[in-house]
Specification:
By secondary structure, the protein is an all-alpha fold. The chain is about 70% helix and about 0% strand. It has eight helices and no strands. It is flat, with a radius of gyration of 19 Å. The termini are far apart.
Amino acid sequence: MAEVCWPDENLVAAAREGDFESITTLVSGSHPHVRRFAYSLCASPEDAEDAAQEALIILYRKIGTLRASGALASWMFRIVRNECLRQLRLRVRRAEPIPDSAIASAEEEAINRWEAERVASAIATLPADQRRVLIMRDVQGYSGRMVADLLGLSTAAMKSRLHRARAAVQQSLRDPILVADDER
């Protein structure tokens, strides 16, 4: 299977400046990532397709508002998330039954949000070189070889950084949670 990368910063910068060919290339290059993310978030495949399509239209229309070329992935993921939520709200308004897998209790949502915050906090404390490898490999889903190539590392060095990053995150998550005296 062919590896698919996010478009590089030069292409994003050219698209931000209004270059039509760059915008077209950027939208088509972002499509696989946007689609994959939409499928992981939306309640149904149909909603995922609609959300991905809407997100790409927003990218096309508003690429000039993107402040930093390196922020494309996080910007697009936020747009996809918002579109998936919008699709869910539309489904509720139309009174279509929502799959049980799309409904979580308030307690489950709070726990999931708390766990996500803990993981994000643990990742944020990693050294930059380990954090980049971990995010590219485990969050963005790039292959080990691709991560190594993109970062200019040997595969062994990339694996070593990834192992250290995962171990540090696991250790951070195992550490007891400190509760302030006023919360007890």
